[in-house]
Amino acid sequence: MSTIMKYKVHELAKDFNVPTKTITEILKKYSATSKNSMQALTERELNIIFQYLTVNNQIESIEEIYAVVHTDRVSGESAGAPAKTDNPAPRRDEDKPQRRFVPQKAPEKRVIDTSGATMNIAKYDDRLDKLVPTRAENMKRGKEKWGKKNQTRTPASPSSKQRAEERDRMQRLHFEIAKKTPLKVSIPDEISVGELASRMKKSGADVVRNLMKLGVMASVSEIIDYETAALVAIELGCKVEREVVVTIEDRLIDVSEDSDDELRPRAPVVVVMGHVDHGKTSLLDRIRSADVASGEAGGITQHIGAYMVSVNGSPITFLDTPGHEAFTAMRARGAMITDIAVLVIAADDGIMPQTVESVSHAKAAGIPIIVAINKIDAPGANIDKIKQQLTEHELISEEWGGDTIICPVSAKTGDGIESLLQMIVLTAEMGELRANPNRLARGAVIEARLDRGRGPIMTALVQNGTLKTGDLIIAGTAVGRVRVMTSDRGERVTEAGPSVPVEITGMSEVPEAGEPFNAVSDERMARDLAEQRRSERKSAVVVDVKVSLDDFFEKLQQGEVKDLNIIIKADVQGSAEAIKSALEKLSGDEVRVRIIHSAVGSVSESDVMLAATSEAIIIAFNVRPDNAAGESAARSGVDIRRHSIIYDCIREIEAAVRGMKAPKYREAVLGHAEVRQIITVSNIGVVAGSYVRDGKIQRGCTLRVIRDGEVIHTGKMGSLRRFKDDVREVASNYECGITVEKYNDIIEGDILEAFVMEQIKE
């Protein structure tokens, strides 16, 4: 088999009389290989070059081949000397190389006939059996490496230039996508121009320029409101969303509203109120059929009790309070936990001062009142007299055409108890009381104490959700897990649903009565919130003034106050009634005077607590607050007005009510000016050179910019000048220079209308 001469690129180019660059380009284009002039060519590369040159260099006739072959033969015989012939064949190139390429013959196909041969197959099988396990074991241990035949060819990795081009292309693609996607900007209620530019990734000049288009002149450091900032952001192609400040309490406590399909009926929570020793606990004792009153010192309720009873399958939760103080304290802390108030009045005693206070507290809470006239079997009981007394406090019996349910009962014999319970159930059904048991619990602390053996213990009423053993709860500054829950009957329970009172152990400290509690899921965040509340309480040295005549007008302007609540305490009933009647006549459309409590006697701490809860002021006519009430009023910021003359009292409240009414204004047009020239002044803006057509233009007035009969802007006057001097006013038929605050879009021909707002005196 003949061997092929190893040709280099430059030799082959010389033989074919072509530039070396032509050969390298053929290889690069059709063989995907790059060679220099000194590298040797493979057989495959030679075949590609020959085929390309043959196809692209066709001969015109067979005589050219004959001439070339004859010339080569003569050259070989003459040992390099040119042969002389009569008819020499013409040469195409005088510098034709002497050495010619001799193409290799195709190798002959070798066929071996093995039909008649015999082979010892068993010898090869035996060798294979010995070889394969050994190689497999070596491969497993990593002793034997794969040979070149077993190595798979990996694709050539892209060059660094290709990688850089791909990276640049992807960056340009992401940049185009980012340019088309609007930037989302979060804007608070107020923001500086510089901060807005930073959030929009724009320059301050761009934001200021767009503000000027809107007629707002603001520097980078000035504060603008949300509406203005949102308009600028939208103009610059940003997507705007309002920034909401989220506190730890917002993230920790779930305050979402329940949907209608999640709500289920719940038991009503009933508070029993009334004068001392009128039989509140005895009535509840009869309802519970348990001897609770006998265990109390002197027959007076010493703590707040919560009890649950069932009436024909309908559960009712009762709260037995020591009067109304704790009830008011719960309302003062925002724990509106009761749904119905049962007012207990002794039939032989009638309405007493604490009874009147209980009525006032229940009305202030806005809950329905059911009157239970107790001790109807006692000597001297007069039910009709009590009904007559109730009408003086706007509690009119249903028998007399009113809407107050009155039930005569006897806690001693049990008469009327069934009817009272049915009225409670009926009132609860009318209220449609519902809650969602399938969520984390929320409720209020009824009472709390420190037990030496068990630690802090609190009685809690679940208002929504379900409280379970092991739940993490926070109440004010107290955090803990529910270790043990005990029902009102002393039984240990594992869960408590809406309107169920339970006693809980496991708190870190004793919470305050009336504190709302919440079941949460994050203990670390709960402890952070408790620490934050503790710090806020320590730093709150100055108590906010809740109720005073001086700040009522300011609150009214902010939309916080529409009613003026008043508590009247006088030396005699006649004075109290006269003051009440005179003050109620001061109510109007904008402000309503509400007398939430009127009684005889000195100002007590209970009165101050009611005033603090209801944001009321106290009028003390010929009476003084006691020491406890004075200290409580100073702490709570309750305003106590002392008077000895009815006329002075009424006049003071009348002045306060008039001051609370929003003043009424009317518009008074001063004059009109025509813009005849526009002057642009640096650091000032646009000055409208105007001619006063009628009336006068007064400094400090409000201007309307009227163009073609339409008002295009209303704003405050910036400055008013004649020539170079500031003037107070310019009369008609005179010229002046006028600027409008934060507005420069004024053109010649505009009309400036000047006006002021005048208060209407009643």
Would you give an account of this structure?
By secondary structure, this protein is of the alpha+beta class. About 30% of the residues lie in helices and about 25% in strands. It is built from 21 helices and 33 strands. Strands 7-8-6-9-10-11 form a six-stranded mixed β-sheet, sandwiched between helices. A six-stranded antiparallel barrel has the order 13-14-20-17-16-21. Helix 7 crosses helix 8.
List the helices and strands and how they pair.
Elements: H1 9-15, H2 20-30, H3 43-56, H4 62-77, H5 121-141, H6 160-180, E1 183-187, E2 190-192, H7 193-199, H8 204-213, E3 223-225, H9 226-235, E4 238-242, H10 248-252, E5 264-265, E6 269-274, H11 280-288, E7 305-311, E8 314-320, H12 325-332, E9 340-346, H13 353-365, E10 369-374, H14 383-391, E11 405-408, H15 417-431, E12 434-435, E13 442-451, E14 455-464, E15 467-468, E16 472-475, E17 478-486, E18 492-493, E19 495-496, E20 501-507, E21 516-520, H16 523-539, H17 552-557, E22 563-570, H18 573-584, E23 592-600, H19 605-614, E24 616-621, H20 627-636, E25 640-643, H21 646-660, E26 665-681, E27 685-698, E28 702-707, E29 710-722, E30 725-726, E31 729-731, E32 735-740, E33 751-759
Parallel strand pairs: 1-4, 6-8, 6-9, 9-10, 10-11, 22-23, 22-24, 24-25
Antiparallel strand pairs: 2-3, 5-12, 7-8, 13-14, 13-21, 14-20, 15-19, 16-17, 16-21, 17-18, 17-20, 26-27, 26-33, 27-31, 27-32, 28-29, 28-33, 29-30, 29-32
Helix pairs in contact: 1-2, 2-3, 7-8, 12-19, 18-21, 19-20
